[in-house]
Structure formats: structure tokens, C-alpha cells
Amino acid sequence: MWDGDVDEHCLRFDRSVSTISGLLATIVLPFTFPTPPPAKCLLAGLETLYALKAIDRDGNLTSDVGENMAELPLRPMCAKMLCNSGEYGCVDEALAIASMLQVDGIFTKNATGKDNIAARVSRRNNFEVAEGDIIMYLNVFDSYMKVKNSSSDQKRSKNACRDWCQKMYVNHRVMEKACDIRESLEKLVKRKFGIENKTFEGFDLGTEKCKRVMKCVLSGFFPQAAHLSTDSTYRGIRGAVLHISPDSCLYRVQQPKWLKAQHSHAAGRQPAALIFSLRPSRGTVGRPTRWTNKFKVTSSPWMQAASNRSDWTSMGEAYVQQWTSYG
């Protein structure tokens, strides 16, 4: 039943639409839903898929991107990031990020104040970076995999991972689940789709690699970008009001002008839980990069298409008329 917040359902419905069929425009409208979803959610899902180039103007899945995205058991934006990872030369990093985004509770919650302070210090000194939470989670996953692969003995490796998680205040069970998810996604991305890393000249380390990883994430999650407004709140592309979560590593630093929000909800005063800055500050990543101009250029065609509401309006009217006739 669609009895909750409409905007919250819209955030999840785009994945459901992408897996129904390759002919969205011709099958979704007459599809016999047990309970018809709101037209607003349906149109939001189609807009997102069109922006990600998963469907064409006729509603068919695109052969190069859409078909691969439909096979991945992920939300469309995360699937698009994986499909683009080979172009940016960061397939392994994108797989790690995608797997970490599928789990919650990476860091343990401690009962005493002393443990909370120790956990905060450990997280800040070992994982937090100026780019934000997503790159921080990538650091957590890479560090965990180094410990896991440090020994060929499975029992010794498991004990080492438990000790490391206890020392770093990381949830061992959640990390094992993330590893299993990554292994499943790797079979699809590398073996079935044949996505390989593009070769780049020069050193493939440090700042340049980090920039490419961030560009790869943004290539899929750009519909969740948000900009800082005059009232010190963030506004999403569709007008949602977002706030940085107190658990974010960017909560206590200078607010970036643009950021990418993850796990955001449009209704009420909800935090953007997992974010990274689209314009990194000076520090661990070196010189700042102007992501704002590149974002405006890449998103301009989609924004122009989304502003022309004629196609979406006619599709919504047809959808409403279809279900009204049944009632």
C-alpha cells in the first residue's frame, strides 16, 4: 500500500521501474499493479532513468548502459556508477563504494562516553578525509581488505579482522556482509559485463586517482547533488531541503558550496547521511578542484529536458486516466 510519504517512496520507486521491462512507456502504464503507485513517483522514476541514460525517449532500455543497469541488483544511480567505473579507471574502488552503500552501521555504537570519544578519535585519525563520507568508507573497506588478505590461513585472517575491527571501532559483521556484496557485484561487472579499467598516463596514485573516483561517483549520483543556499541549508536539484548529519565527517568543517547527498529524504528536516564535497578543500587531497562548473555543464542537458514537462505531463495524464477507468 502507498500510504506513507510520497517523496520517500519516490526515492525507491525508480529502481522498481527499471526492472519491470525494457519497454517502460508501453508496459508500465497498462501494468496491473495490486495498488497503483502515485503518478508523481512514476514520473520521478522515469525522469531519473532518462537522466542516467538508462532509457531513451521511447522508454526502451538503452543497449549500452540500460541493459547492464537492469541486471545489477542496485538502485539505478549506483548501477550507473559501476557501469562508468571503467572509463574512470576505478572499477575496484567503485565496487567497494557500491558495496559499502548497501550496508548500515559501519561503526559500532558504544555505551560509555569514554568509548565514544576513543571511537571518534580513531575514526578521525585513521579514516576521515576532506572529501567526505563516501571516500572515508572507501578507506575503511581498503584497510579491512588489507588485514583480511594479510594471511593465507582463513582462521588466522578472521581473527585478525576481528581484532582490527575491535581496535578501530568497526562492525565486523557489517564489513563481512560488504565483502560478500562486493564479491557478487564483481562477478557481474568484471566477468559478465567485461568492464575493465582504462589506462591513464603518469602516476596513478594520490590526488589524481581520488579525483577520478569522485568523478565516477558523481557520474551516477548527480541527481542527488545539492547546493548551499543563503539560509545555510542545502537544496537538492528537485528542491528538497537537506542538512548535514552530525555523524558526517563534514559536519564540523566549513560547509562546501556543492555536495552529493546519499540516504536523503525530502520530507521534513532530514539529514544527508552519506555525503562528499564536490569541491574538496586543501588538506589530504592537495589543491582544490572546481567541481561546481563541471557539474553545471554535465547536468545542463538533463535539466533542460526535465524542465520541458510536456512529455512527462502527457505520460502522467495517461497513467492517471488508465487507473481512473478501472476505478
Any chance you could write out the topology, listing elements then pairs?
Blueprint: H1 6-18, H2 24-27, H3 39-51, H4 66-71, H5 76-84, H6 91-100, H7 113-126, H8 133-148, H9 154-168, H10 172-192, H11 206-221, E1 225-228, E2 234-236, E3 241-244, E4 258-262, E5 270-272, E6 274-277, H12 291-307, H13 310-326
Parallel strand pairs: 3-5
Antiparallel strand pairs: 1-2, 1-4, 2-3, 4-6
Helix pairs in contact: 1-3, 3-13, 5-6, 5-11, 6-8, 6-10
Describe this structure in words.
- This protein is an alpha+beta fold and 327 residues long.
- The chain has a domain at 1-71 and 296-327.
- The protein has 13 helices and six strands.
- It has helices spanning 6-18, 24-27, 39-51, 66-71, 76-84, 91-100, 113-126, 133-148, 154-168, 172-192, 206-221, 291-307, 310-326; strands at 225-228, 234-236, 241-244, 258-262, 270-272, 274-277.
- A hairpin with a 5-residue loop joins strand 1 and strand 2 (234-236).
- Helix 5 crosses helix 11 and helix 6 crosses helix 10 (172-192).
Could you write a compact summary of the structure shown?
With 327 residues, the chain is of the alpha+beta class.
Strand content: 5-15%
Question: Mean pLDDT, as a whole number?
Answer: 76
Number of helices: 13
- The shape is globular
Task: List the secondary-structure elements in sequence, H or E.
Answer: HHHHHHHHHHHEEEEEEHH
Low-confidence regions: 1-9, 19-24, 264-273, 279-303
Spatial ordering of strands, largest sheet: 5-3-2-1-4-6
Terminal CA distance reads 16 Å
In terms of quaternary structure, the protein is single chain
Total count of strands: 6
Radius of gyration: 21 Å
